[in-house]
Structures are given as structure tokens and as C-alpha cells.
Design brief:
Length: about 800
């Protein structure tokens, strides 16, 4: 879901032109160095503070003053250049620096790293029932965990609309005794808005304003209040209370509920109109851990960089080290490969799948053909028994490209008025295209996917009668328009809205937009970890934003239907809270292991889940370990556990320097032992991925060492079943694990052998299988992946 202001195409052209001219005229050397400053995050040795400084803040201020001939004296009332100070998940601060200042600062004693800030973007119900979480059960995860009542989920997002019924505190006791957070008052958000459900709310805008100047408070709240909708939606998915009746414009009627209905919420607002800034995100991680959250849910992402340059990875490690489970969205860059984000192995990375509900809105063409589509449109519908003139936007505007995309100002009202308009997907938001058509006088819109989008469909709350169709269907409609025009029989169509359809099969399906592997930073760690419901999810919505998200949309609704890995992530966050409540002794790694080893890769037909973009079978690169299965995750039998020092060894084997490892982990690293003990793939992860560089070799082999912890019955015997990847030989030693007590750990060795395959330079092939440990009751499943790469 985009949070940037809508930019018209004409303005974009003007800005681009102006930028080019400016670059031609103005030399960088002519710009004062202070005006070239950008935000950096500075990692320091916490114990390196000279004793002359009473606090770390004084040390940081003095270090900044030493960089410039311009005196920056906080004691004299002059504004501090420090944006945030960090004390919990990270030791250091953030500040605006020029390139030369950053270089000087990095050379100072006690400074370990100077990290450039990234700007992140948001990755934007029936799902509890689809996941098997039913309130009427006499047993199960909801009952065993008391609906998560003593757990706190921190949601790092766009804030929250606290008045929504999803956040009521009826029948909840006081916050957990460990809770140290607070409700920070701000614009239109008195502290009294927090309650026994929403027990904390903070906002972080210093990084945003350091780059963009003071926020425009006419369209943003300087407070935890949500002016976008994304944060309210994700928070209620994770932990919304039961609300009945719930619907969006009459669609998806029923009970709305989050995954952990009695879990407490803390909202940390870091995303603003221009994006989500690393310095603010890291400050939110720092505060959340100090406040005492148990789970952090982050539906935000950006470019994949090495972990020591990734503020989210660094903040998430600090949270993991404090016992906090961190889940993050995989991103919406699918269906292409290498698009997954938030790939650090201490983060649970969540992709998106469908549920068994959709919102059909079909196109009926003048030739009698019915084209399937989806929509959440709740206004006056087009007549079913009448056909309306139909045009393709790309053939009607002066600029075919702009008009084909229905960009602002691109449509000719004389050509569009009174007609249904076919628009191509891309550039501006899907709902914004409908507004463009409506303003030009169109009476309806058909939104066609491009080739990259494939056949994946997303239902939107359009401002006029509109539906979305797949790429193949879009091509068919264009051909019909062309042939009808040639035959001098005007093309006509109508849109038939069929409401809400349940028990859709097959389900689940991997959503087309869901980001895919392989992992671009560490190919030996399979990402995403798993998938959860993320398509057309009903959840709470603020009262100041229309359901389409367009400023001109004055409709108001208590719930909205959105899609994205942003929606999938809080499903897992809520489930993690339930598991932590049911098993307080489990570590974040144990919780993730339980979710992954009990996940499934089949659909309601009993066959491998489909890929929505192609209609073909999906792969482990699409869904990781599979689709989350909450009830089985409560009793996984065995778990693959990890601690912070296991990750230090992992970073050693990733060839990180001791300094870079300390930037991430705050721990001194001696890598000599780690490198002797194994390789990157030996991290005790619930999946096993072998990456072979062929280099002319005919036979290739590797091994994995894994440790499993018994969390099932005290006396249990597990035997192995191997499903090797095609063309590979997999052996496991021993083939039998005998446990005598709960908490006992046993090791096993996996050997993988594969023969080289014929590949063109720079190409690769991926094959997958699995190993399953079972005691007859539990089936502990780990995907095993073999990637063969042919170097250039």
C-alpha cells in the first residue's frame, strides 16, 4: 500500500525536466556542505565513552561539534543535530552529516560504523476461521493461550485509530506487570485514548523531518494517530477484538477478529507521507524492547543490503537478543525471483497467500463472453441487462502511453464520457485510475494486469463501477475492442458485481505480488520463511480515510479490505503471541521453528499450492516452508532452536569482519572456531539449502548439522523419512532419534550429493524435497533445497 502523495504525470515530467536543468547548471561544489547533509546512523562502542562526559548524549554532541568549524552548542540553546539516541537494541545515535563529516566521524575513537539511512515503504475477516482458529473449540491454540491476553504485540507502522471497536478493552485485566511503556500524547491523541487493550502508543518523526522539513500538520497528525490506515489495519489483524457485524461496503459480512484477540497492543508510528525512515524505525525498535513487548510486527521494507548496513536487521537482532519475536513482510515485488526483503535469519519473513473467499465482478462483453474479475465496489451498479460503450484508454489519448495507464489528465473527456474504460495497471494506484476515469466522465473501468502481474487479482474499493482482470483477459478484451471496431459494430460491455463468495477452491494460492526467493543476501537461508493470508483481508480502518485511500473519497467505513504481505505479516505476529502465551519458555527461534515445521504446501485439492501469477504449481522459492498451520504449531514435537551466539557464528561463516559482526550483534566475535566448525548452511535453521557452484565439476556434495529439541512427549522416538530433491542423493545419520525427556537436544547429520546439470553461463536450477522426523503423532518437516548455479 503506497503512502506517498499522488504525483501527476505532468508534474513528474516537469520535476524531471527541472532536475535535469538544475544538475546541468549547479555544480555540487557550489552547494554549501551543510545543505548536502544526509541522515546517518552511527554505531558506537558503548563502553568507549570518555569519563569526562557525564552521559552518552554529551559524548555524541561533542563528537558532532568536533567535525565542523561551525559550533553546535546544545547548552547554549542551539538545536541539537542528534536525531535519535539509541540505548537498547543498538548503541549510538543518528544525525545529519555531509559526506566529509561522515568520513571524519567514522575515524573517531569509539565509533564503529556510520550507516547511511534508507527510506522504507509499506508492503501493502475470514482469515481466523480459514486458519482453523474457532472460538467455539473446547481446546486449541486460542483456548490454550487464553487468546494471548498477557502478551504485548508492538506494531511498527503508520500509527493507530484507537476509537475503533477492534481495540476495545472490555473484560481485559490490567496490563502485564512487566509493561514499562506509555501513551504519548500528541495532536488529536490525548493519552487517555489508550486503554487496557491499546496499552502503549508512541510516534517517531525526527528522522522524517530531518530529511523533509517540518511535517504538514494539515494532512498528518503529529501523534500516534493514523492518517493513512495501514497501521490500524495491520494492528487489528494481529490482535483485533471480536466485532460483529463487520463488512466493507457490504462485502465480507460477518465477524471480524485478529489472530490474538486478547493480546495487548502497542503502536509505534514511524511511517509518514514521504515514507518510513531508518532512524525512526530503529528508535521504535529501541523503545519497543525497553517497553517490554513480546512480539514486533513490521510490515515495512526496502532494498536488501548487507546486515551490518541494514537498520531493520540490526534493530531486529537487538530485539531477538532480548527475547522478542520479530516478524516482517517479505515485500510485494513478486512474482519475479530475488524480490524478497527483510531476509535476516533472525527475522521471520512472511509472504502472502489467498483464503477461500473472493469478490467476483465479471465483465460481460458484447460478443457474449464472460471475463472473470474481482472488485469491492459498493455504489450504484451498472445494469446487468444493458451493455455500455467500451473503449481502450490507450487508443483515445494524445499520449498513448499515459492514457493507457489512465494517468492524471491523460484522458480525453469527449472520448471517455458515458463509457466503460479499459485501463492498464502500472505507475499510479489502481484506485486512482478509477478516479481519473470518473473525472473524465467515464461510467466504469476495467483494470487489466500487465504481463509482469500475470493473472493475480486484487479487489479494490473503487470510486466507480470497476473490476480487475488478469493479463490474459486484458488481452482478450483489447482484441474484442479492436475486432468490433473494425467490423463497425461498436464494442460494448457491462460489469456484473456478484458480492462475496465463500469456500473458493483451490485455496490457499500463493499471491501473485508476494515476493519470492532466492534470498539475495544469503542464498543458503531459504526466504520467505512461510506464507499467511494476505489477499483481500478485512480489518479495521480509520475514520478520516476513504476505503480507496484517495483524498477525494469521502466514504467512511469501520473496516476495509486490503491486500499485501503487509496483511500476511501481522497474521504471523498474532500467532506468535498465541504460541508464546501457550509456551512461555519458547525462544523466538523455537516459535518460528514450530510455525515452519508444521506448515503445509498443499491446497484444498490435496495438491501443491498454485502460483496465482501463472496458474502453475508454486515452489519453495514462493512459499518457503509452506502455509502457516496454527493448530499444529502449538504442538510441533521438535524445534530447531537458536541463540544469539549461533548467529554470531553464522555471520563469521558469512565472512563478516569482527567489526561488522559487532555492529549487528553488539558482541565481540572470535571467528576462528566458527569457521572450523562449519559453513553458512550449518545455522540451525528449520530449512536446509545447498547452493552448488558447478565450475566444471561433475559431482558435488555438502553436509548440514542440525540440532532438534524435544518439546513433545518425554519418551519419544522419531524416525526419518527422506524425500530427496530430483537428481540428488540425501542421507541422514542417525536415522532414529530417541528422546528421554522434554528439553533434550539431539544432533543429526544430513549429507547431500548432486550431479552437475547442463546450464548456460549465469543460469541456475532449483530442486526441492524434504526430510520429515515423525514419532507417529508429530511430523516435523524441513524443506531441503538444492540450487545448481553455472558461473559466468
Amino acid at each position: 500500500m503506497a503512502i506517498s502523495p499522488i504525483i501527476t504525470f505532468s508534474n513528474l515530467l516537469f520535476c524531471t525536466y527541472f532536475l535535469v536543468i538544475s544538475l546541468l547548471i549547479v555544480s555540487p561544489s557550489a552547494i554549501p556542505e551543510a545543505d548536502q547533509r544526509k541522515t546517518f546512523i552511527i554505531r558506537v562502542h558503548h563502553d568507549a565513552k570518555p569519563s569526562i562526559f557525564p552521559t552518552h548524549q554529551h559524548w555524541y554532541e561533542s563528537s558532532l561539534r568536533s567535525l565542523s568549524t561551525v559550533t553546535v552548542n546544545s547548552d547554549s540553546g542551539e538545536a541539537s543535530r542528534i536525531i535519535h539516541s539509541y540505548d537498547n537494541v543498538f548503541h549510538g545515535f543518528s544525525a545529519k552529516l555531509s559526506a566529509s563529516e561522515a568520513q571524519k566521524l567514522e575515524s573517531l575513537s569509539g565509533v564503529m560504523a556510520v550507516i547511511p539511512e534508507q527510506v522504507r515503504q509499506l508492503h501493502t475477516t475470514r482469515s481466523p476461521e480459514f486458519l482453523g482458529l474457532k472460538t467455539g473449540d473446547n481446546a486449541g491454540l486460542l483456548k490454550e493461550s487464553d487468546f494471548g491476553s498477557d502478551l504485548v504485540i508492538g506494531v511498527i507502522d503508520t500509527g493507530i485509530w484507537p476509537e475503533r471497536e477492534s481495540f476495545n478493552d472490555r473484560d481485559l485485566g490490567p496490563p502485564p506487570a512487566k509493561w514499562k511503556g506509555e501513551c504519548v500524547a500528541g495532536e488529536n491523541f490525548p493519552a487517555s485514548l489508550c486503554n487496557r487493550k491499546l496499552i502503549g502508543a508512541r510516534y517517531f518523526c525526527n528522522g522524517y523531518e530531518a530529511t523533509n522539513g517540518k511535517m504538514n500538520e494539515t494532512n498528518e497528525f503529529r501523534s500516534p494517530r493514523d492518517s493513512d490506515g495501514h497501521g490500524t489495519h495491520t494492528a487489528s489483524i494481529a490482535a483485533g477484538r471480536y466485532v460483529f457485524p463487520a463488512s466493507t461496503l457490504g462485502y465480507a459480512r460477518g465477524v471480524a477478529a485478529g489472530m490474538a484477540p486478547k493480546a495487548r497492543l502497542a503502536a509505534y508510528k514511524v511511517c509518514w507521507n514521504a515514507g518510513c525512515y531508518d532512524s525512526d524505525i530503529l528508535a521504535a525498535f529501541d523503545a519497543a524492547v525497553a517497553d517490554g513487548v513480546d512480539v514486533i510486527s513490521l510490515s515495512v521494507g526496502g532494498v536488501v543490503v548487507p546486515y551490518y548496513l541494514d537498520a531493520i536487521a540490526i534493530g531486529a537482532f537487538g530485539a531477538f537478543d532480548a527475547g522478542v519475536f520479530v516478524s516482517a513482510s517479505a515485500g510485494n515485488g513478486g512474482p519475479g525471483g530475488l524480490t524478497v526483503t527483510n531476509v535476516a535469519p533472525w527475522v521471520t519473513t512472511v509472504g502472502a497467500g489467498t483464503i477461500d473467499r473472493d469478490f467476483p465482478a465479471d465483465v460481460k462483453l458484447g460478443n457474449g463472453r464472460i471475463i472473470p474479475g474481482v472488485s469491492v465496489y459498493g455504489g450504484p451498479a451498472l445494469a446487468h441487462d444493458k451493455l455500455y460503450p467500451l473503449i481502450y484508454a490507450g487508443s483515445e489519448g494524445s499520449d498513448g502511453y499515459s492514457s493507457s495507464l489512465c494517468l492524471e489528465g491523460s484522458l480525453n473527456p469527449n472520448a471517455v464520457r458515458g463509457k466503460i474504460v479499459l485501463c492498464d495497471r502500472g505507475i499510479n494506484s489502481r484506485a486512482a485510475k478509477g478516479e481519473v476515469v470518473k473525472k473524465a466522465g467515464g461510467i466504469g473501468m476495467i483494470l487489466a494486469n500487465g504481463v509482469f502481474d500475470g493473472e493475480g487479482l486484487v479487489a479494490d474499493c473503487h470510486v466507480l463501477p470497476a473490476t480487475a482482470v488478469g493479463a490474459t483477459s486484458g488481452d482478450e478484451i483489447r482484441r474484442y475492442i479492436q475486432s468490433a471496431t473494425k467490423s463497425k459494430s461498436p464494442p460494448v460491455a457491462t460489469i456484473i458485481f456478484r458480492g462475496t463468495r465463500l469456500h473458493v477452491a483451490p485455496a490457499p494460492i500463493v499471491a501473485s505480488f508476494s515476493a519470492r526467493g532466492p534470498n539475495p543476501e544469503t542464498p543458503e537461508i531459504l526466504k520467505p520463511d512461510l506464507i499467511a493470508p494476505g489477499l483481500n483481508i478485512l480489518a479495521a480502518w480509520p475514520d478520516n480515510v476513504g476505503p480507496s485511500g484517495i483524498p477525494s473519497d469521502k466514504r467512511r467505513t469501520e473496516f476495509n479490505i486490503l491486500s499485501g504481505t503487509s496483511m500476511a505479516c501481522p497474521h504471523v505476529s498474532g500467532l506468535a503471541a498465541l504460541l508464546k502465551a501457550a509456551h512461555p519458555e519458547w525462544s523466538p527461534a523455537a516459535i518460528r521453528s514450530a510455525l515452519m515445521t508444521t506448515a503445509y504446501s498443499h491446497d484444498t485439492r490435496g495438491e501443491t499450492m498454485l502460483d496465482e501469477s501463472t496458474g502453475n504449481s508454486s515452489t519453495v522459492m514462493d512459499y518457503g516452508a509452506g502455509h502457516v498451520h496454527p493448530q499444529k504449531a502449538m504442538d510441533p514435537g521438535l524445534v530447531y532452536d537458536l541463540n544469539s551466539y549461533d548467529y554470531v557464528d553464522f555471520l563469521c561463516n558469512s565472512n563478516y569482519t569482527a567489526k561488522n559482526i559487532q555492529v549487528v550483534t553488539r558482541k565481540a566475535a572470535d571467528c576462528s572456531g566458527a569457521k572450523r566448525a562449519g559453513h553458512v548452511g550449518n545455522l540451525n535453521y528449520p530449512t536446509l539449502t545447498a547452493v552448488f557452484q558447478q565450475y566444471g565439476k561433475h559431482k558435488l556434495s555438502t553436509h548440514f548439522i542440525r540440532t532438534v529439541t524435544n518439546v513433545g512427549s518425554p519418551d519419544s522416538i522419531y524416525t526419518i523419512k527422506i524425500h530427496p530433491p530430483s537428481g540428488a542423493v540425501v542421507t541422514v545419520e542417525p536415522e532414529r532419534l530417541a528422546f528421554r525427556r522434554v528439553g533434550q537436544k539431539l544432533n543429526f547429520l544430513v549429507r547431500v550429493q548432486a550431479e552437475a546439470v547442463k546450464l548456460s553461463p549465469g543460469s541456475s536450477v532449483v530442486k526441492s524435497g524434504s526430510i520429515v522426523w515423525s514419532d507417529g503423532k508429530h511430523f516435523v518437516t524441513s524443506p531441503i533445497v538444492v540450487t545448481m548455479q553455472q558461473p559466468l
